[in-house]
């Protein structure tokens, strides 16, 4: 529960693409104090493009240009030494330079400034990402939205995460995130051309499992030392 949120957001038109990886490989990418979580014997890495909307601190109205922009995250699933599960971000791309600066300075997260778009057309969503100053690093995803998905162990493991971890000044830190449960639908990937995972040190050749959601409203707490 986030008792004192420092940021309000909406994550809209989100797609979750997930791949299995050996847990030892993912563990090699984590800082001390975090352990890669497994489901069905594997660690998992997600590529999650979405539209960030209504971004604002408490008691401040959302600003039209600054508060609405695409974002794409590469993330994996971990727990700390207290057994608390959460997210570890391998990269975050955002289309607003002030948001990138705030994410890096405020939460010490690996944000990158990118040219991005999210286009929604009935039951199809197209995401585009080109990282500025990093020639050739991009992430393009096209999906078709399918039928609703009932909650199950795997989708809960991959999506129902309410904590992030980061390293601030060399020390492990965490922040809580609060939002309703995801209402998920199956997705069919019609086009995928990305090397964001490769830029994070991973190779994903297999087809991902895919889900989509219209989104959730989110409250984010400030980080604190673990």
TrEMBL record:
Identify the Gene3D superfamilies for this entry: Acetoacetate decarboxylase-like
Superkingdom of the source species: Bacteria
Q: Which SUPFAM superfamilies match?
A: Acetoacetate decarboxylase-like
Report the protein name in the record.
DUF2071 domain-containing protein
The species this protein belongs to is Herbidospora solisilvae
């Amino acid at each position: 529960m986030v008792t004192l949120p420092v940021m309000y957001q909406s994550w809209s038109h989100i797609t979750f693409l997930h791949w299995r990886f050996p847990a030892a490989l993912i563990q090699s990418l984590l800082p001390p104090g975090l352990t890669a979580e497994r489901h069905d014997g594997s660690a998992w890495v997600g590529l999650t493009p979405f539209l960030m909307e209504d971004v604002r601190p408490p008691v401040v109205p959302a600003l039209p240009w600054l508060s609405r922009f695409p974002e794409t995250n590469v993330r994996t699933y971990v727990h700390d030494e207290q057994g608390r599960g959460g997210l570890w971000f391998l990269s975050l791309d955002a289309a607003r330079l002030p948001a990138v600066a705030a994410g890096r300075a405020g939460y010490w997260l690996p944000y990158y400034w990118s040219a991005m778009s999210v286009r929604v057309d009935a039951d199809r969503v197209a995401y585009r990402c080109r990282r500025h100053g990093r020639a050739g690093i991009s992430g393009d995803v096209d999906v078709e939205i399918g039928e609703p998905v009932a909650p199950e162990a795997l989708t809960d493991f991959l999506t129902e995460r309410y904590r992030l971890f980061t390293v601030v000044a060399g020390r492990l830190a965490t922040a809580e995130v609060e939002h309703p449960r995801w209402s998920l639908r199956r997705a069919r990937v019609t086009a995928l051309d990305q090397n964001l995972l490769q830029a994070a040190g991973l190779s994903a050749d297999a087809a991902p499992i895919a889900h989509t959601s219209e989104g959730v409203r989110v409250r984010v707490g400030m980080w604190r030392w673990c």
